[in-house]
Structures
1.
Amino acid sequence: MNPRLDAIFKATRELFELPEGLVYLDGNSLGPLPKASREHVRHVIDEQWSSQLIKGWNDSGWIDLPQKVGDKIAKLVGAPAGSVIATDSTSVNLFKVLSAALEMQAHHTAQNPESAARRVVLSDTGNFPNDLYVAQGLLRALGDGPHGDGYELRMVEPEEVADAIDETVAVLMLTQTDYRTGRLHDMADLTRRAHEVGVLTVWDLAHSAGALPVHLDVSGADFAIGCGYKYLNGGPGAPAFVYVRPEHAAKARPALVGWMGHETPFAFDLDYRPAPTTDRMLVGTPPILAMASLDAALDVWDGVDLADVRERSIELSELFIAEVETLCPELELASPRDPQARASQVSFRFPEGYAVMQALIARDVIGDFRAPDMMRFGFTPLYLTPEEVVRAARVLETVLRDKLWDSPEYKRKSKVT
Amino acid sequence: MNPRLDAIFKATRELFELPEGLVYLDGNSLGPLPKASREHVRHVIDEQWSSQLIKGWNDSGWIDLPQKVGDKIAKLVGAPAGSVIATDSTSVNLFKVLSAALEMQAHHTAQNPESAARRVVLSDTGNFPNDLYVAQGLLRALGDGPHGDGYELRMVEPEEVADAIDETVAVLMLTQTDYRTGRLHDMADLTRRAHEVGVLTVWDLAHSAGALPVHLDVSGADFAIGCGYKYLNGGPGAPAFVYVRPEHAAKARPALVGWMGHETPFAFDLDYRPAPTTDRMLVGTPPILAMASLDAALDVWDGVDLADVRERSIELSELFIAEVETLCPELELASPRDPQARASQVSFRFPEGYAVMQALIARDVIGDFRAPDMMRFGFTPLYLTPEEVVRAARVLETVLRDKLWDSPEYKRKSKVT
């Protein structure tokens, strides 16, 4: 462990509420409560909504929160100010940017009659299934119909993506970090290959933003979306974010639009005219209580260098792998062994993984499970210590050695796994 | 005033935080803070997110909140349990149901080759412009393209809607209550006319839900959406709701879908299979802090009869009109004079309406303004008294008589009007 980092992350840990004795390895699914979020939500309720009522939109700047919060996120994902907006859910944002990217390609084809229409959205089987659902819903509506002349969602294995990029592809839609294993795609390399053959890229940063340095700008990514409630600690179901490469901001036309993305929302014109900026990715009224929590949670990152986060994240995950492989040889590492090839989580396979995870949780070691057999553990340097990582491995050893998981109570499935 | 109602609404007023001395006539834009919402949001932060972390999804039932909150709303809009879901914004929900309705019509045409394709979304110029923007964005993506063979948004004057319903129309998309004047469309009559010629209906209840009895079920409406932060007092940007007529629930296929609407969200299948219920209108992870506020706010309605709300709302608005017309003859009533023809707001026209409204607000009488010349006043019996209504009219008289509005500070436009 790099001792320089101890002091940095001892200080950031103080910014969170964490139950005594709990080892929380699920910040990749839901970040814990930043103390500042609790205070700020109270403030917004008690001093803004309560007393300012409708005036809060102007007097407390509620109307500008999507941009203000977006700018805080932009710094964490290597994006320029003004290119990121906090709004809606990752799914809704993915729908917007995917539809906008397809429209840009259709427009390009219409302007260049010699070029063949691009009808393929290329993705991989390691993508978060939700992203595939969003694409399926959109393409179904746009016409992936019975005549076979419509759009197609083409899925390949993750390692086959690079070779599958060709001139039939309109959009390459990928999640940078595999939600199951933490495996990283090379965003810059795949984006470069995509651009060489005229393909636009849409990146989901759900398990990347706040987990490691992300270089949206230098990678050349065209669009990106990401999550506010995982490594950004915005609270359950926090607003998500959307990035539009500045050169596309005035051209992108999502299928889903609304008054908050209008050039002059309060003129109440009958015709939609998109704002000339990333604001056009806004649709409805921003959710202020949820946005307030995320807004305050992002201040945890003030003065934190993501290179330090990455260094400590690798230290923690390497430590965990070493401990678990020594203590629990029956588990199979599902994550890449090379720390540069994975983000900030480690997963192990075990046939009874679900029950093992329930037994762990009952012993105050919190990870999660992904079907069919994947136990996931997230590493979040802002509030996770090396001592806790060692403790988690020891509890895991006990659960396995004593078959503590072999109990009906741990095999009963929860609604959310 | 009906004295029986005094006691009922004296009790409900106690459930809200209202600044001393303020006359709040803008609950149709943002409802005030219910005391229970403050307490419940604190509880969710301090006792759920803080200590349960990821376990809150199961242990505190977060995952079921869209349905639980939806069922509370269903009671207020005349809908059966299970037919309403709280989620996303009104705009996003409108996009879902409009796309689903168009898909149902396209499917019907494909099944009945003898019938002509229906390509028209019929709406009116009194619709909230945002709803028109949502339709424009969707139709643009579906192909209202240059060949003229695509979809069309047809707008007529509000009073011409009934006669414009014909067999070219796929969907009749209307807002029940005109956001400017409070004029009500006859939902049951227009829906009946629509169904007679095979048209599906989509109703926006933004200024209706919680303002007056709404009869979704008996009106035959096919789809509806509505707002959580106006008369339902859920907080700024609260989640909205979506209604699907039960007979359509297993058929409706929105263009925008996601994992929360999947038949088995946590199986992580690669293919989308919609839930067989209204759940298919869910997309991303529900925003729990915002949902908690709305959840608690809806308990204000426990034991409240919407017929009583309607009776008192008419008493208050009639009182306001009588006072203002006596005291301020320079104002022109923009709302229907017949109280049965308007919802729970009253609007007056005045060329300098914006400045007058700013002068009123500076004197603790809060209404709002809609371009070009409309001053809006909302009447919310849950927390508004007859005395306050009289006081508002008196302050308005003073502002006009002494030309207090004629000041540069009141003419400077705010970002949100």
Note: The mean pLDDT of chain B is 96.
2.
Amino acid sequence: MAKVKKQPRPKAETPKGFRDYFGADVTARSEMLQNIAQVYHRYGFDALETSAVETVEALGKFLPDVDRPNEGVFAWQEDEGDWLALRYDLTAPLARVYAQFRNDLPLPYRRYAMGPVWRNEKPGPGRFRQFYQCDADTVGAASVAADAEICAMLSDTLEVAGIPRGDYIVRVNNRKVLNGVMQVAGVLDPSDPEKFAAERGIVLRAIDKLDRLGLDGVRALLGAGRKDASGDFTDGAGLGPEQAEIVMAFMTAKAPTAEATLATLGGLVQGAPVGIEGVQELETMAELLAAQGYAADRIDIDPSVVRGLGYYTGPVFEAELTFEILDEKGRKRQFGSVAGGGRYDDLVKRFTGQSVPATGVSIGVDRLLAALREKGRMGAQAQGPVVVTVMDRDRMADYQTIVAELRAAGIRAEVYLGNPKNFGNQLKYADRRNAPIAVIEGGEEKERGVIQVKDLILGAEMAKEASLEEWKARPSQFEIPRSDLVAKIRDILVSQRG
Amino acid sequence: MAKVKKQPRPKAETPKGFRDYFGADVTARSEMLQNIAQVYHRYGFDALETSAVETVEALGKFLPDVDRPNEGVFAWQEDEGDWLALRYDLTAPLARVYAQFRNDLPLPYRRYAMGPVWRNEKPGPGRFRQFYQCDADTVGAASVAADAEICAMLSDTLEVAGIPRGDYIVRVNNRKVLNGVMQVAGVLDPSDPEKFAAERGIVLRAIDKLDRLGLDGVRALLGAGRKDASGDFTDGAGLGPEQAEIVMAFMTAKAPTAEATLATLGGLVQGAPVGIEGVQELETMAELLAAQGYAADRIDIDPSVVRGLGYYTGPVFEAELTFEILDEKGRKRQFGSVAGGGRYDDLVKRFTGQSVPATGVSIGVDRLLAALREKGRMGAQAQGPVVVTVMDRDRMADYQTIVAELRAAGIRAEVYLGNPKNFGNQLKYADRRNAPIAVIEGGEEKERGVIQVKDLILGAEMAKEASLEEWKARPSQFEIPRSDLVAKIRDILVSQRG
């Protein structure tokens, strides 16, 4: 027989830009998603889980994030010729599902969805090509009551996820107010919607860069243009100083109270019906939210919210975490945005030709988890199982009986299943597993009807700081009757948590 | 400006072979996975979530299912040239992760994983290209105590998932016993493992077809070969009648007790060390399981388990649901397999060159859910929210306050967000939402400090069968003080459940 040609071994590597999640990272996210789902459910939203794969045709070619226009999808061609791709968000599949099943779905249709999405972009530090999204959307409700509801739900969700009141703020803005401002500033002509499209594009991109460029940078882009540090020149929208100031006044209209903010905005859009409508929408939302007890400490009208204004068509909202963290250079900065959304009324139209009103929010689950980790609000490590050691290889049935009793009592427990020859290895294993307790039953103990119990948490503490007297007074290893196994182990676990 | 060319509208269609899950189907699966995860966790298994995407190189080209050798993966080439693919199961990623992180992982490493996998196969009725798997594996434990543990855990898992004892059986077999049988039957020569490889392949394929061909069909394939109904002839393994009978005796060795079964198997493999080792492994597993209280009504030694024998290297297990259902032609049949697994010792070797023992199980979550549905053990429809109707468009804040109170009390509730003009549409909506209660507050009620409550469940019952007297005695719509809202709604919800 011919020798089999030796194949080179495959590399054991996570593909570039992807990552694996272990243990507590998986369960913490799963618990957070469950908690969020409960809030969504209570608000009357129904779960929807679409497949990860869509036809490229249904997905469309354009991604919603204004700041990442070039990013792509993972796509491949079927044998029969259709192109398929992994979903890049949860909104495009919702649009497809709503168009496909609209005769069977309630109207309005409130749905939530959670799961991974994929972006075919260049991987970078902290930038992954697969990540979780967690969305809630209402399709078919034109009233801003739907937007207010989403904001209230977002506030509840953040608190349920572990962000206390005061550590976050949901900020609300409205694209129609900006349209009114643009009309007053002379770059939007209601009688000829296509006119000044280029200028408006520059205005939108300029205000979207507020975070990065600051007010002066935006002002330059609204006017003649701006030269950046490298000397590159970016053309501006060509607004005169007065026109530009109207846009600037919009972005900085935030006042101490919603009433004052709305009054300022109302003043800015005088004579522009679309802007007046936008201010009224914000007023209605503020009223509805106040009626439900959501004050400005939770949800606030804030025209400095500029992200997504280019994409959304009415109310826009963003949830920011307001506590400070240290960035990679040790400087204090606010944690920033963890969720965003707004009204988008044209998504279903691609499929059906009919405009369907829709509004929704997307929570960045992984960022929210990172925030909780920063605040130390997440158990850094999950507790490991009670480890039952194997003293006598032939008595595996005895050890299995011990774990079975513990598990039946709801206690996480396992038998050491490696080679039991070296007992030190078994304790090292228990250590690596974060085991709170090790159980030891040698032949001699078996005969006397007892077992040895090792409190590994106490043991670790004692090893750090205890005096000899303390060692004697609080032994971390002791003998208990075999018949007391479950009760004693439970006692120790409770004392460890105290 | 040039007219924009009209693009044809995209089709709103789930891609072929994929499907969408709505509402209760999503939450039922999610709850089942949570319950299963709790059992896995209690057994000391840690969660692992790998990315959906792997390099084709790491994935390998071969799928584990013997009965679907031609099925492929969804793959695409990166710009830089690497080929990536969607995972087709959860075992291949485990092998990659274990090889990659083996220095940081505990040894043995118990892990569980749950999530979708993708198969690029021809879609057919009931055959989807994305489905859920839910796996638990122990890597690095050579002892069959690890296999016994998996079987015990599988039994616990099925019960937690809602399959009562008596409605399922975990069957255990062992590939080594079959190897012993093949040695005795003359198609395995321990001194020349390559010899008779073709014959053994035919034997494996033959017994794998037991379900479909029956004993006589398998016997024919073990011998000279078999002509099927279409006249096609399949070559047999060429065993003589006596040799074939040894293999047949193996498959039918199941006796009323495990002891009797093991005695029969022991007799069959006399003189074949590998077979004797296999029988001993089954004996050890039976002892360990008995010590933990798992009797033959839950886990049984059964050599008729032939699925996966070609893939696994030691113990093989399969969980079957034993209750009968009606198939599509109205005939009674057992529901069948919902989980399978076994020992596979060579998976990591591809990467590292070192053989690492491993054993595990994979639960077919969607099949398990289908089984619960068949048995009527799953709420056919989740209860909808309390629907607060909108009588007066200008008093949206009042209605929002009502839902906010209900939600704060943990009651699922929503305001009708569609166009409120037609009240009939609002009640139709409540019906489509499976709403248990509709709340109505007109201006006149508002003034009097009352609200109308409509018990939609009672209403539907009464509409079906009630007499006029009953209608009067148990009105399904009545007035309550606004201040009693939460208490009364809760009472009605409780009475509906009773």
Note: Residues 62-70 of chain B have pLDDT under 50 and may be disordered.
3.
Amino acid sequence: MGESINVALLGLGVVGSGVARVLLAKGEAYARRLGRPLRLHKALVRDPRRPRAVDVDPSLLTTEASHILEDPQVHIVVEAMGGEEPAHTYIREALARGRYVVTANKEVMAKHGPSLMSLAHQQGVDILFEASVGGGIPIINPLRRDLAANQIRALRAIINGTTNYILTRMAREGLAFQDALAQAQELGYAEPDPTNDIAGHDAAFKLSILASLAFNTHIPPEAVYREGITALTPRDFRYAHELGYAIKLLAIARHHGDDGLEARVHPVLIPQEAPLAKVEGVLNAIEVEGDLVGRVTFQGPGAGALPTASAILADVLDAAQALIHGRPPSPWHPPSPIPLRPMEQLARRYYIRMEVADRPGVLAQIAHCFGKHQVSIASVIQKETNEEAQTAEIVIMTHTAQEAAVRATIADVEHLPVVEQVGTFLRVED
Amino acid sequence: MGESINVALLGLGVVGSGVARVLLAKGEAYARRLGRPLRLHKALVRDPRRPRAVDVDPSLLTTEASHILEDPQVHIVVEAMGGEEPAHTYIREALARGRYVVTANKEVMAKHGPSLMSLAHQQGVDILFEASVGGGIPIINPLRRDLAANQIRALRAIINGTTNYILTRMAREGLAFQDALAQAQELGYAEPDPTNDIAGHDAAFKLSILASLAFNTHIPPEAVYREGITALTPRDFRYAHELGYAIKLLAIARHHGDDGLEARVHPVLIPQEAPLAKVEGVLNAIEVEGDLVGRVTFQGPGAGALPTASAILADVLDAAQALIHGRPPSPWHPPSPIPLRPMEQLARRYYIRMEVADRPGVLAQIAHCFGKHQVSIASVIQKETNEEAQTAEIVIMTHTAQEAAVRATIADVEHLPVVEQVGTFLRVED
């Protein structure tokens, strides 16, 4: 059957163990397909004595990255450690030594993707990262290959399962954010420190990767506008529902031609009948809009050991085939800079919820602020009043307005003595 | 920029014109990406003087296939004629002469896919057919590459836009089948002779292609069990809705390990909250279930000149890259025969609507037939009665039962003098 293709794993946590388990279980089936054995050759771990979900031969474990990176018998390095460092350095080292690299690391790919792809290109190898976005959902390769004839116009995605699970529970059961988060943590859907998910960092990393590919540019993750979901209340979900909308954390990128790119992650109101509104629980979905194809949507489990292993091992099989058949790596085009549009230029309809004093003339004062900034009000609903505190809740939906004008309006409204606070401010995505 | 990659088109109808239009409009952008010009070199047409939606240089038109097939300057042949012959013969000829072939032809690929792929493999080229299923939705390549680490367990798909449009109108507006069909024809969504779509042939071709790839076998289209949508009535949609279901024409293939494969196209009841139940109008959606990834769904426009051109040109760009970079064609594995399970072995819940005489004792006689064949009744609803004709309508939902037993039951029920007719008989897909 010829010499084996040797795979080394950096990291044997949830994702790494999943990959090892599948490699051990399916190695023979994969070998039949490749015509060459595909073997787990080494695995980097922190503590070789720790019990694991997978029965890896202890002689394959090492605590020294150099034992893998400097081993000439390793053909494919699978990075499954997560986090920026030392993963980034190890990946760079592996590529520099002419190894194929497969990674699930969204932070590394978001921050260093273009320079790593350039390095891979110089070395005549490839860095494959299908698993870095959307778990097992094929999206990176379809963007690179299957939609390559299109000019991509926009991406809209639910790419963080934790927050989508929390929002689904809040919408369905009227839970408060903290209670929905606690339940997500109990079920293992949210980390003990959930900041990375609930503040939108994870989604921003993934949007950075997708948008950089779709528009052949580099959008560093810190350039993505970002708001989390912590300020949402059960009342927002009730009002949104009444108005015919769902609330979702969307990652959105859109190409405005010469006017540049927008790239943002924040909760939005989206019509209940929109396909993305119906994506529930931990599922992910990515909608791609191309000039030829129109809108196509990719949906599935966005996380989990086996779905992620599905994506990683597809890349491993692809790299193995490239090695076996002497196939040149996929062509690489240096990214072109495209200016990012400031959020202030965004034009959307807006939902604004505020607590106000419950007395005559209040609405007139608020409406005056909106008028002053040319923000046109589409509807006003005065919601439940709190008789004790003598306050009422007002929800205003605007017509399409510029974000700069809406923010200036809110700043003015917040200064009105009759306004207790502006609670939530959400953009509408149609 | 080097010598051009020359593309020849067989057929300049809706799909062919779309491809030509995009090639002319985007040729330069594609050339920049490839590093070599990509040119429309020749196009086979029936009548060169016919006016067309695209402005192709008349000197490129030919009425002789041999002018294209025997031209050594042609690198990539795009077949956009449709129908089995002469398309199949031309594709075979092009491959035999070492040309890359890109096709949107579901009939040819369903019937001859494995032998054409084998021929391409022998010739060191490739036949690419992303456009043959699901229009612009990436599904063929994701199955072949991105889900390659999985053992595929099942496919469930809405892959005929015409019938999905008709069913959507029937469900939403209570239209009769003939009226919904007439509207689809008016809008150009259905052909003047709609048999191919409404009888399920088109969906069976596409299922044959998908299932053959997913299970690495060859399922000839005539081996796919097939029922069309012509027998459905507005009442079925009303009852289905009351019971919490939508009615969809699904193409389903499932691997039962040593028990063989099922492959079937027919209308089903599917729970309203299932993702496939929410796919409306001319949209297509393909759900793939793999042992690692779980369920992933691909959704988008399943037809139309530009979405189909999106898929064809992605394949053309891929073939061009293979030619330019000397990349070997994708590996090919001869299909293994897998036995097909007869429909009689299917185990499902069933919906049966029948017209019966409106008098006491009728239900007892019907229930007796069900009991005799061990088909357990889950619920019976007696629906509107026709007082003049003294008939009533009964809808029976069964528990899970074997298709053979249900069919035997229905044959018995049809022989009861109190039963006017068994109207509709639908399988439930959960």
Note: Chain B touches chain A through 50 residues (CB under 8 Å).
